[in-house]
Design goal:
The protein has 220 residues and is of the alpha/beta class. It has 6 helices and 11 strands. The chain has one domain (2-212): Class I glutamine amidotransferase (GATase) domain (Rossmann fold, 3-Layer(aba) Sandwich), CATH 3.40.50. The longest helix is centred in the first third of the chain and has 14 residues, at 16-29. The two termini are 18 Å apart.
């Protein structure tokens, strides 16, 4: 049985407890044993983290110590998967660039706040987005600074209605990457609980978390 750790907290506007409950249930349906913690102190010992196949940050903003961030990064580099969504992973720990380097991006703006926009699937062969079609969201459209080494699976294009200088700018919505031996998955969707009622949003995150879990055969 695969195991997952969700650490959750930070800004309450992203419903850390509720989203943790949701994805704990989905992962358990997929055969995971899931542990949840509200303490960043549980990240400090890399050996404790290496018992997990998957670690899910669900902690918008907040502060992480260098020791905690370094331990998390080492566990991922040694084969533990990392996966998450929206601000819980992509706007966590603004003070820590090591964490952001591992994630592959960082939130910087959501022009217009709650708006209608389209998500375009750019890779229909990857297991996370296979057989999915473009879809629409009514939510925050994340403008992010992203690592060019990411493998982008879906993206969105800004129309410039709020900031004319970003008209036509294309920003990744879903990406995967490697961090050492570990798989990293991120999806910028998921601002409100109702966002997860969009079938494609929910399915992408569910598939992504499963994909990120420690690859079979990794030996440390």
């Amino acid at each position: 049985m695969k195991t997952a750790l969700i650490f959750y907290g930070g800004w309450e506007g992203h419903f850390p407890a509720e989203t943790t409950d949701l994805f704990s249930r989905l992962l358990e349906e997929d055969g995971f044993a899931v542990n949840c913690t509200e303490s960043l102190e549980d990240l400090e010992d890399v050996e404790d983290l290496l018992v997990y196949d998957l670690i899910i940050p669900n902690w918008t903003m907040g502060e992480i110590s260098n020791k905690q961030a370094d331990s998390l990064a080492e566990a991922v580099s040694r084969g533990c998967g990392l996966g998450g969504w929206h601000g819980g992973m992509g706007d966590a720990f603004r003070n820590n660039t090591h964490y952001q380097f591992m994630v592959g991006g960082q939130f910087v703006a959501h022009p217009g706040k709650i708006i209608s926009y389209k998500v375009n699937i750019t890779n229909t062969e990857h297991p996370i987005t296979r057989d999915l079609e473009d879809f629409s969201m009514e939510s925050e459209q994340y403008y992010m600074h992203v690592d060019p080494s990411n493998e982008v699976l879906a993206q969105t294009t800004f129309d410039g209605a709020v900031h004319p200088w970003i008209d036509g700018a294309t920003i990744p919505v879903v990406w995967v990457r490697k961090w050492g031996q570990g798989n990293v998955f991120y999806c910028s969707l998921g601002h409100r609980m109702e966002d997860f009622e969009v079938p494609q949003c929910r399915e992408i995150i569910r598939r992504g978390l499963n994909w990120a879990a420690r690859p079979e055969g990794v030996d440390w």
